[in-house]
Amino acid sequence: MNALEKSVIAWPSMALPFIFAFLFLLSGDFRAAATVAECEGRWIYIRELPSRFNTDLLATCDDFPLLFELREQQEKSLLPFIANHGLGPRTHNRSHSWYRTDPLFMELLFHRRMLEYPCLVADPAAADAVFVPYYAAIAALPFLYSPDQWNSSALHGRDLADWLRRDRPAIWSRRAGHDHFLAVAGAAWDFDNDPVQTTVWGTAFLGLPECYNLSALTLESRAWPLQEHAVPPPTSFHPATLGRFNAWLARARRSRRPALMLFAGGAASSSGRPNIASSIRAECELRRDLCDIVDCSRGACAHDPARFMRPMIRARFCLHPPGDTPTRRSTFDGILAGCIPVFFEEASAARQFGWHLPRRRYSEFSVLIPKEEVVFRGRRIADVLEAIPRARVRRMRNAVLELAPAVMYRRHGSSTALRARKDAFDLAIEGVLRRIRRRVQAMEQGTNPLVLVGEDEEEQQHLQPSDRVGDAADSAIYPNVLSVVRTGSTGGGFGGEPNPENSMVAFALLLCSYKLSC
């Protein structure tokens, strides 16, 4: 790539600070319809961070060869995917709704959408919540993919924490950061290391004392979510009008589906050890009359939605085994395609995305087949799925398509009619506002803010036993919803170090709730 090409690609990231400032001035046009009454309890203030914490970071995305090696993706530059404020370039020139979206830029997407939020307020003292436009996952790249900085991972986010405390300190000290939230384009596991110890992988961003009080919207939560909540990763579908959104749903609804099931994933593991992905691949290879395979080896599917969406729209069931982590982005691609998700462990979705996929409705739109049944007991997935009555399959597909708005991130600047539909961003903001409201109420009552392990008050009722098709022997076990005191300052404040006794008690209760130890 010559110098001119590099400058053309880098220009959008260099200009972004000015573009964001201009959009903020224009954002009143998008927010004009919101009234004071409609914004009651929903006012959000955006912290004005120096550009080194967000837009300046975008120019560094290509500085880490190890990132591309581990991703095994064909493209050797991430800069093109900054286009369209994180949606990425269009899949082709005539495309209106489909983009080559990289989930790494979810933080940029959230930043852009926040500028259209109808209840922004200029006075932080009048805000119910404070949004921090920090690109945490991009800032983490040197600590994750530069070997010379692996032992410095505890530094990730420390400069931000210092800045939040020192710049206009009244904003932070008003509620000790409990009203602050941000988006993190990664799994919480990657950011929860001990700040005191050096590690080989991950950073300590969520482990910083200042970050205990922040609420983080992550792509995957831990088994004991403390300050984070999982939100769907951005798919490649970002319509700008209600007509285009409805047109896609109509296509998915009427599509003929000759394939019983579909698996989109990489090649089978070469380790030889039994695992669910290898078992699925083996069964699909033997039953090509019933199962379609989309080979996503070496990142082939990362930025090419046509490669997997066309097969998904022709399949009745989409298989989503856990990989390196429990969740898969393809779950949400499949929902948009009307392909009924098949899970092999509850951590893949039922314990993750409660604000977007209602826990009590999982039996209506998904199938759960325990992976142990497939890997160690020889249960055939095709036999389980073929046994489901056709009428029920139709009902499940309709339920899946009803969830499509909740997992879709519409394009910024979309039509008024489409903005009336709550998308994944809207539901994430509603959820984090509920969480912050609980914390603030606890502070006003003179008690330590509580962080519910799991979900907010709208999701505390236990699910009915999940409908494990073909597995009536036992019902699903869902974790109890526990209230855990996350912080316990010896001085009676709300921003101190965690109380070790409280943490140990909470952890013991947590293990019990997950049936790991009692």
UniProtKB/TrEMBL annotation:
Annotated membrane topology? Single-pass type II membrane protein
Indicate where this protein resides in the cell.
Golgi apparatus membrane
Gene Ontology molecular function? glycosyltransferase activity
Q: Which InterPro entries match?
A: Exostosin (IPR004263), Exostosin_GT47 (IPR040911)
**Which Pfam families does its entry note?**
Exostosin_GT47
Q: Where is the Exostosin GT47 domain?
A: 39-376
Keyword terms, alphabetized? Glycosyltransferase, Golgi apparatus, Signal-anchor, Transferase, Transmembrane
| Entry's Gene Ontology cellular component terms | Golgi membrane
Q: Which family does it belong to?
A: Belongs to the glycosyltransferase 47 family.
Concerning PANTHER family, the annotation shows: EXOSTOSIN HEPARAN SULFATE GLYCOSYLTRANSFERASE -RELATED, XYLOGLUCAN GALACTOSYLTRANSFERASE GT19-RELATED
Q: What is this protein called?
A: Exostosin GT47 domain-containing protein
